Amino acid sequence: MSIPKPFVVAALLASAAMWCSAQSTAPSAANNGSANSGANYFTPSAPSDILQRSLDEVRITVGNVKLDKWKRGSVRDEAGTNIDAIQRDLQGTLPGLLKDADSAPGTLTKVLPLSRNVDALYDVMVHVVEASRVVGTGDNVSQLQQALSDLEKARVVLDNQIQQTADMQEKQVVDLRNTVQKQDASLRAAATPPPAPKCPAPATTAKKKRAAKPAASTTNANGTTKPTAGTTSTPTKPQ
Q1: pLDDT at residue 5 tops 90
Q2: Looking at residue 40, what DSSP letter applies?
Q3: Which of 173, 53, 183, 72 is nearest to 131 (CA)?
Q4: Element (H, E) at 227
C-alpha cells in the first residue's frame, strides 16, 4: 500500500548504533550513563499487543460487508476495491511487518514501516466508511465506524510509543556525547605534561668598595708637615 503521510523521525535511526559503538570505547562511562538515565528508560510493548485486536476487528468487519446490498454505482465499486486492498494487506503485508516489529519493539527501523502501513490502512478504511454512509446499509455503517474508531485508538498508542522510544534514544545519544567529550578533555589534560617550575634567579649583591680617604695632616709653624695620629708620613723640609 502507498504511504500517504511521511513520519519524520529518521534523524534518530542511527542512535542505537552510536550507543553500542561508544559502549565499547567507554564502558565505565556508559554504565554510569545508563544508571543515571534509568528513570527515563522503559520497555516498549510488542506492537502486536497494541494493534492485533483492532486489526482482527477490521478484518472481520470488512469481511462481513455485503456489497450486493449497497446501492449500485461508482461509490460502491470504489468501496469494493478498497475492501479488497484492505484484505490483501491484512493477510499479506501486515503479518510480516508485525513479526519484524515484535522482534525489536525498541528499534525504530523495525517499527516505523509497520506504523506507516497502519496509517495507510486507516486512510483506506476512512474511504470505506464514507462510502457506507452514502450507499451502504445501516448495520454496515455502524460496524465500520466502530472498527475505524478502534483502529485509530490503537494507532495513537503505537505512535506515542514510537515517540517515547525516539525521545529516550535521543537523550541517550546526548548523554553519551557529553560523556565522550568529558573523557576526551580528561585524556588530553592527562597527556599534556605540566609546565616546568620556574626557579628563582639568584640574588646578586654588588659590594661597593669604600674609597680610601687621604690621611689628614697638620703643618707646624716651621713649615714641616706632621701627620695625624695613626698615620705615617715622611716630613718635608722647607726649601
Answers
A1: no
A2: G
A3: 72
A4: strand 225-227
CATH number at residue 133: 1.20.120
- In angstroms, the CA 55 to CA 155 distance is 10
The answer to whether residue 86 is domain-embedded is yes
Separation CA 61–CA 140 (nearest Å): 8
Q: What is the mean pLDDT of the chain?
A: 77
pTM of the model: 0.60
> How many domains does the chain fold into?
1
- How would you label 191-226 residue by residue, b for 16+ Cβ within 10 Å and e otherwise? eeeeeeeeeeeeeeeeeeeeeeeeeeeeeeeeeeee
pLDDT in tens, 73-119: 999 999 999 999 999 999 999 999 999 999 999 999 999 999 999 99
Cα–Cα distance measured from residue 208 to residue 133, given in angstroms and rounded to the nearest whole number:
119
Alpha-helix residue ranges (DSSP H) falling in the chain: 15-25, 27-36, 47-63, 74-88, 94-103, 108-135, 138-191
Determine, yes or no, domain membership for 196: no
**CA separation for the pair 196, 14 (Å, rounded):** 46
Judged by DSSP in three states, 35 sits in helix
> Has residue 154 been placed in a domain?
yes
**Residues of the domain holding 60:** 45-173
Residue at 202 is within a domain: no
pLDDT band at 185 (very low <50, low <70, confident <90, very high): confident
